[in-house]
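hey so u asked for the seq, here:
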Amino acid sequence: MGVGVFLLAKFKWVLAMLKWTKFGGTLITMMVSLGAYAALYGWKFGAAVIYLIFVHEMGHVVAAKRKGIATSPAFFIPFMGAFISMKQMPRDAATEAYLAYGGPLAGLISFLPAVALYEWTGDPFWALVVFLGALINLFNLIPVSPLDGGRIVSVLSTKIWLIGLILLGIYAFMAGSPLMVIILIFGVVTWWNRAREGYRGGLLAYEKGKLTEFRKELLRWPNLLSTWELKQALMAQIETARRAQEEGGGRRLIPFLQDEEKLAREQVRLDREYAERMLTRLQEWEYEPVQYEDGDPDKPIPSHLLTEEVRRADEAIAGIDEELHRYRTYYEAPASVKWKVLAAYLALAGVLSVFMLYGHRIMELHM
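ran it, structure tokens below
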């Protein structure tokens, strides 16, 4: 600790420079993680783990670059590994599987030199490196999102995630590892979001209809001779929706089993929400001063309020269309692609398993 404080005091300008460089965060978090591992297990072990994790993450980076997807630099977290973030979503699950596969594949390549070094020197440390490299990357192939394995098998079927969650849950219970619990929680959230996409899609489609109706009404207002009837109709819609909400009550509904009732309740909420929004905008528009081009009463300038609302509605509709398209097509893939992904996944898992057993057997011989 004393040495660390001294170095920080003497070379804090170096840390300041690293902070503002592209890979400053990677270097700083890498050094922090290296120190954490070294403090408990020694520098050799810490350096080996950091090296294995770094090469794994660089595999993701290379795969992303090959697909034209920008990523952030790697960020290390002591005793949890490292991660990179994508600056845009892959266009489909097959592309995401390609990016995910790059990590464990690079991880396999990373410890192959250790195999040769052990055969040459007989030092059991290199067997440990092989075992750790195989274990880290094999663990990442568990078919649970957000692990690499879950992202790879998503192109086959996201239903596999549930199997992976059950297996990971059993292992987390037996091992009592906080890291396993964290991954399990993330996996459950990801699986749940995927499982609820059907319900979410139905709700989005209904909201798109409300937005389209809202936009159509906005364009109709300048041609109205009177807004009295429209106001009365909107207030009646609001009151009807309010009563329906009160009758529906606030009782919780069971997902999947009561989705139809839940969807109907949400539709009533949207009916009221858009009726109130429309009434508010109508009242604001009525009090908005009319402006004319060059002061000519025959050339009224279109209402800024209505123009802005139409623009927002168009953006919202475009966003919903994009999300609905993703729900329908993201996980679709030709059968040939699925077979290739399955073969690649099983082959990599098999090779990693062999090397993990190889490293474990050698370590047992030297114990």
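Residues 1-15 have pLDDT under 50 and may be disordered. Residues 21-195+331-366 form one domain.
lmk if thats what u needed
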